[in-house]
Amino acid sequence: MSGFDRVLARVENFLAAGSLGAAAGLAIVGVILRYVFGTVIFWAEEAIIYLVIFSTFVGAVVTLRHNEHVNVDIVPTLLGERGKWFFALLGAAMTLLYCAIIGGYAWLSITEPAAQNTTTPALGLQLWVVQLALPIGLTLMFVRVIEIIYRTARGRQTFPEAERNDLIGYTEEASMGNGEDVEDEGETAENEERR
């Protein structure tokens, strides 16, 4: 993984997990305050909604990085390697076009007078702050799709993070083969040293 890719992955993970964690934490605090102390954070519900929306848009980029979006690939499975390669490039190009068009309009929408002059009811934030989730998410996805197109065109592994799962320490493909969890190489070497 290149340095840029590593930094981008950390930013994406931090934004997605941070906003979802903040929403969960705020919800827990709100429940405790309501039922234990009989008080309410009046802006909590609105903040939780906006944090979950932000987490969803950035989480879509993380999902793309791991190649976990829903994928219908009936035609490519009937073709050879060249056909699969072509359809992978075509799909990525269409995604890039979508991100460019919708992302461009999303950036324009936050400059509109309605977004600048309208405030949210509880938090009192200008609407453009809340709407930032869409252009930020689509811009990050645009960058990821360019990376996917580059890797696919060069014949490289398109989704290197889809091949491993850092959280549980085994590869999906290896575990699907025989139904057993397969440790990654680092854990195997560590276990051998202990013996």
Domain module tally: 2
N-end to C-end Cα span: 32 Å
Number of helices: 9
Summarize the main sheet.
none
* SS elements, strand count: 0
- Approximate strand percentage: under 5%
State the oligomer.
Answer: single chain
What does the overall shape look like? elongated
Order of helical and strand elements: HHHHHHHHH
Q: Compute the average pLDDT.
A: 82
How would you describe this structure to a colleague?
The protein is mainly α and 195 residues long. It folds into two domains: 3-163, no CATH class; 165-195, no CATH class. The chain is built from nine helices and no strands. The longest helix has 35 residues, at 3-37. It starts with a helix and ends with a helix.
Name its key features:
195 residues, 71% helix, mainly alpha, 0% strand, elongated
Summary of the model, kept short:
By secondary structure, the chain is an all-alpha fold.
List the helices and strands and how they pair.
Elements: H1 3-37, H2 44-65, H3 74-78, H4 81-109, H5 113-117, H6 127-131, H7 133-153, H8 172-178, H9 185-194
Helix pairs in contact: 1-2, 2-7, 4-7
